[in-house]
Amino acid sequence: MQLKNGTRLYAQIDFPVEGKEFDAKVYEEAVAFANNMVKERYCKIGIFSNTEGAMCLFEAESLDEAHALAQSGPLIKHGLYRYELYEWNLVITSEDASAE
Question: pLDDT below 50 — which residues of the chain?
């Protein structure tokens, strides 16, 4: 997918809820949810290596749609993580920004 200047992206930062742990079933749900996200829209997902938590940078039509997507993620739905969401307007891209 080619990103263009002006593309509206959302940065979702996920933070673990203290004292909550997820099991294999929820982990599998989260992986399936992430795989669907990357098939349907521009989406990059990763975990932090210097702190707990994760980040998802994804494309959505509006802030409302972005919140709906974030809230439908299994880790959020099950109350294992909380999230913060930031609207991020792409201003400058490298020529190979679409490289996978």
Answer: 97, 99-100
